[in-house]
Amino acid sequence: MMRGVRNYFVFLRRCADVALVGDWRYYAWLGGLAVICLLGLNAYCRQFAQGLVVTGMSDEVSWGVYIANFTFLVGVAAAAVMMVIPVYIYKNEDLHDLVIFGELLAVAAILMCLAFVTVDLGRPDRFWHLIPGIGQFNFPRSMLSWDVIVLNGYLLLNVHICGYLLYCRYRKSKPGKWFYLPFVFIAIVWAVSIHTVTAFLYVGLGGRPFWNSSIVGPRFLASAFTAGPALIILAMQVVRRVTSSPSPGLETPGAGGASWPPSQGRAATLEDFALLCRHLPEMALVPVEVRQSVLPMAEVLEARRGETLLRQGETEDRAFFILRGSVVVKRQEGGRYRITRTAGPGEQFGEISALKATARTASAMAEEPSLVLSLPAEALRRLMKCPPVNKIVRSRMSERLVITDRALMTLRSIVQVSMLINVFLLLNEVFKEFYSGNLHVVSSKYLFVGLGNHHALVPWIWTAIAFNLVAMVLLVLPVSRSLKWLNLTCVLCIVGIWIEKGMGLVVPGFIPTPLGEMMEYRPSLNETLVCFGIWSFGLLCYTIFLRMSVPILQGRLSKENEAAPSPSAAAAAAAGG
Amino acid sequence: MGRRSFLRTSAVVTTGLVALAASLKPLLEMNDFPTMERFLQKYYKEMTPQDMAKVLQRIEDEVEKQYGLRPHVRDLKPLEGVEFVYCLNLTRCIGCRKCVHACVAENNESRDPEIQYIRVLRLPDGSLDIDKADHFYAPESVPEKGYFYMPVQCQQCKNPPCVKVCPVHATWQEADGITVVDYDWCIGCRYCEAACPYWARRFNFTKPSIPKERLNPDMAYLGNRPRRQGVMEKCHFCIQRTRAGRYPACLEVCPAGARKFGNILDPNSEVSYILKNKRVFIQLKEELGTAPRFFYYFDV
């Protein structure tokens, strides 16, 4: 028990070490975000001291950008589920490695949501009145109490799932299904619930006809599943970019060609198998006859540092087990090289393409002088007839970090469908409001065309609609299959939906007031600074989460290299300098 | 750790701490930092009579310290067999806004920024379309030809949306039908303000200010005691008066006799008479199902 706790603290300390190491660009990014965070904190302290009078809100428009951002970010958090469903329900392999990034984004988004509701409170010092048990919690009558439960619950679920999977990867142990799969399925339902509950905050108010419409919930989900995956598409490309380097590395000068094909090996012996069994105890369970039968097919290679053992794009049917040393697997994507995993003694590489007889998806190089056992696919199949070997080999197949263009395209089709639904639902709403033309249309009129001298939101909403429509057209056209256009489309989706759902939904609900008074709202400078502060805080959190999780997923940061002299240096190298 | 990296780390940490301290500086101007006693104050319904006595004492001390006047703060409970109802005669109201000012004075509403519980709407004759209402009419004299006036304040709904949405039970309906706010329990989320179809709730966006000489020292815990920054308030049918057998301030001041108030459970009360005998009366936004205890009627 004590040992377990100690190990866990070592893990956390090493994660913290990794998060604080990087090159000057990384420090500049963190420093910039920290400065904006502090500016936001300063603005919030001013608001805390003087009251919400420093915002643009009033009794007439009593919620503003804080709640608008909150609403948008709940959607982003909920959208993480759009990565989880394809992977866990439809077994989508392309998105497999990205699930954790989606969930980490959800964690960062929920932290921002909680910050946004907190800054919106008039008496944040009385937060404890909300805690069930000590305070007075109006559950289940108040939708806000539902929101408190679902948001905090979702935060815990995602922290647990990410934390558990990353810790398992760190220890290179297989995650126990019962420790995370039930939570994954709960989180799927929960994600839909957080956004539905947030929509119900508005929908449940009979006195506000602009919100009191049953389409708000579906619209929230559709827009969330557009903006969320769009954000993930952009974030994943950033991760891919900053974790790759222009050269494959490790190759000794002039040896680029010489290191391929690898030097001839010698025939494997039973002693080599015994060495493998020491690092991979499951192998010892393979019957001796089977071992002997594969022996003639097996070879042992002595690889120098930097020697390429297999090369991306080649097709051959050999899989490898490391007996000594370590091997780094790098993938070339768009002219840059990125580590997808690192393997140590007892671990395999090249097995997927060998078994499937497909081209190598990455290159593998020895990071240090290594001893490697090379087997043809046939031999590996024979060994895998032994169930424990089969299990361990298969479980390790998924231990890699691949961000393929195919994964991004899968996300693109999610964004595509959601955007079509989103625009369709918006049309439904606009039709109902304007065609029936009853008294309730007045808020929509204010939003879309303005009322008399009051038209502050008109340019905003038309910008949002233009962005959404352009994005929709781009998504439908094949042009958005190219990353450049896809990125532009994603930015349009995110900005369009932020305006439409944030300012375009929250503010007009208050205008005119239930007594017909026209009072417009414009966020104050102080309020805007607080918003920027919270966004920076969220980005800071997400950056740090990615910084910790990428080396773990690559296998650079693991329990095995705990004793290594400088884990942070290794991680920094892993992250691409 | 080498000397250089030690120096560098400490430089970074020091800069960080200085920046943090600088950004926290506005807290020094804080005028209303909650004391431990106030921070830990119990919920109204959970206070024992002893707790309440202590709290009332403390409130009196605080008010005296701030305004130089010893108030009398009571915790008045609803009376047995009483359900309050308000009736307002739209034929009589002349739109003079005397009720608004009487309310401000009686209930210690903030003068700067201005908080008022009653909003008088001017509507063109023949229409009850609230979007046509003028809130800021300012003629030489009232009433004006072609218009009628409709004062709106908390409608004391039987089915109040504000109570339903409050996440911390800081606002609730009492046995005599008055919806009250525990100003010391409200967290200031303003969800009730968004939920109210009558725009009857007001938020203290900053510290309220009342001139010392204007303070009304006859106070109730759930009524007109001074509020703090960051909490909701609203019309409570002058709880400090009506639970002590007096009329609300808005009624007393009305020069036109347009306002009637009383106990609907008493068949002989004026409001019972009006609801039984006047043929036309409206509950504002009746279609929302809020069931207001505030009735508008006309003389016919």
Structure description:
The complex is a heterodimer of chains A (577) and B (300). Chain A is built from 19 helices and 10 strands. Chain A folds into 3 domains: 8-55 and 524-577, no CATH class; 56-243 and 404-523, Formate dehydrogenase/DMSO reductase fold (Up-down Bundle), CATH 1.20.1630; 266-397, Jelly Rolls (Sandwich), CATH 2.60.120. In chain A, helix 2 (24-50) packs antiparallel against helix 18 (525-554) and helix 4 (81-88) crosses helix 7. In chain A, the strands form 2 sheets. In chain A, strands 1-7-6-9-4 form a 5-stranded antiparallel sheet. In chain A, strands 2-3-10-5-8 form a 5-stranded antiparallel sheet. In chain A, strand 6 and strand 7 (336-343) form a beta hairpin. By secondary structure, chain A is an alpha+beta fold. Helices cover 58% and strands 8% of the residues of chain A. The longest helix of chain A is centred in the C-terminal third of the chain and has 32 residues, at 405-436. With 300 residues, chain B is an alpha+beta fold. Chain B has a single domain, classed as Alpha-Beta Plaits (2-Layer Sandwich). Chain B contains 9 helices and 12 strands. In chain B, the strands form 5 sheets. Chain B has a 4-stranded mixed sheet. In chain B, strands 1-8 form a two-stranded parallel sheet. In chain B, strand 5 and strand 6 (179-181) form a beta hairpin. Chain B is elongated. The model of chain B has no long low-confidence stretch (mean pLDDT 94). The interface between A and B is large, with 57 and 62 residues.
The total of helices of chain B stands at: 9
Number of strands of chain B: 12
| Alpha-beta classification of chain A | alpha+beta
Mean pLDDT of chain A: 88
* Unreliable residue runs of chain B: none
Q: What is the 3D form of chain B?
A: elongated
Strand order, biggest sheet of chain A?
1-7-6-9-4
Task: Quickly name the level 1 CATH class of the largest domain in chain A.
Answer: Mainly Alpha
Radius of gyration of chain A: 27 Å
What is the level-2 CATH architecture name of the largest domain in chain A?
Up-down Bundle
Q: Could you name the CATH topology of chain B? A: Alpha-Beta Plaits
**Radius of gyration of chain B in whole Å, from Cα?**
24 Å
CATH class of chain B: Alpha Beta
Helix content of chain B: 25-40%
